[in-house]
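To: structure subgroup
Subject: Chain for Friday's discussion

All,

I'm putting the inputs and outputs inline so they're searchable in the archive.
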Amino acid sequence: MARFYITTPIYYVNDAPHVGHAYCTVNADALARWHRQRGDETFFLTGTDEHGQKVADAAAANGVTPNEWTDRYSARFRAAWDDLNIAYDDYIRTTEPRHAETVQKFLTAIYENGYIYKGSYRGLYCVSCEDYYTSEALVGGNCPVHGRPAVEMEEENWFFKLSAFEDRLLEWYGLHPTATTPDTKRNEAVAFIRGGLRDISITRKSLTWGVGVPWDREQVFYVWYDALVNYLTAIGYGSDQANVEKWWPSVHHLIGKEIIRFHCVWWPAMCMAAGIEPPQHVHVHGWLLVGGQKLSKTMAGEGAVRLTDIAPQSLTADYGVDPVRYYLLRDTPLGTDGDFSLEGIIARYNTDLANNLGNLVARVATVVGSKCGGVAPVCDQSSPLRAEAESAVAASAAAWESFAPHSALEATWRLIGATNAHLEQHAPWKMEPGAEVDKVMGDALEALRIITALIVPAMPGTAQEIWQRLGLSGAVADCALSDVTVWGQFPVGVAVTKGDPLFPRIKTES
């Protein structure tokens, strides 16, 4: 059996979840759901990053302890994912004892292998990024991501010998050209390595809110070197070697493009230093933009973006869970920047969901009810819709496999369009009950059954509702794709029900 281990970044708890977080998490969830349908043994990890200066500062500013702060905000992320029907297998918090133990074991292995040493560091630091920048990388003295001034810091810390891995990383990328996708992001990582790697500080002496360094009680690990290890914590590094060997070769990290350097340079080097293989695949997605500007918690306070207006729960309350999931998956390819707008959600809702999918479900059920006695007739093995369905299944599978949910959904909607066109061509609502209308509706029902299976990763709730209206038993998500997408399986004689409109149109101002 194939395995699929997918991770999101763990989200930083210095503020509430926003739709940018939801974009990554919904995509990861949909990918995990597709692999489960395919029959792969699947493990989906998400969670929260809870150490570092930003968390300590936010807690102090709000008059609470860091523990109280992280409990509060980690719960908000969990609630947001529950609201979006995210089916994760593990939700990790970096303040958990299991994670501290793993971090210490992993970094101790690097230390004992001779790749960590003590030194003094002075540089320009962005508290919001929890990262140092060269003066050349700053924009007018400000962080290029957050637009806030970098501050000069100097400390005696422990350093990781990143410079020792320059040649090994380039060799590894040469041998594993698909380790980072899309190609443009791999090229970016390789260019960074070729530009020369400098050793990096991995501990902090001025901070207490973090995982302690086992060999130096005066220091804690810098938050990034704590956070990256979560991917190993969840599969039992240091305590369950068999489970690590089971899952690590199948890991896929889904990340935003602002953290390429950490995941595609630092992290594989750290794995090499600890004596394990680097992650086999990192897929980098772009940013959601509002008015051409990246969704950013830190900029929200400056009036650039009001993220409280586009929190995930506010969207699902207005448009429904599955329409929001569909929009996030369909509108922005997983690798490019995309414009987020409420107008975009409404357009997808009214066109793709109400006019196309919702209309197809309603008209099929209506005609079966009026012309076929409310029960399913047999489908035709030589139906022209069969080739359309088989093409959609193949294209959808290839797209999900390539981390292209938008393309998978485009393929599915081509089948929806072909089925609607088939009905328009034959106009069964004008026919008299009998063999001719039974043939048309049997084919439409069979196409709709396959469509229902294909939309599970994107819209699991909607898929199950359609499945039940078609009179089909069990959970569609539990049906193996290799079985359920074969043409000709609709059970003859089951009762089909119409139900209320799946997607009542949203009225817009003309």
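Points worth raising on Friday:
Residues 342-484 form a domain with the Isoleucyl-tRNA Synthetase; Domain 1 fold (CATH 1.10.730.10).
The chain has 19 helices and 17 strands.

D.
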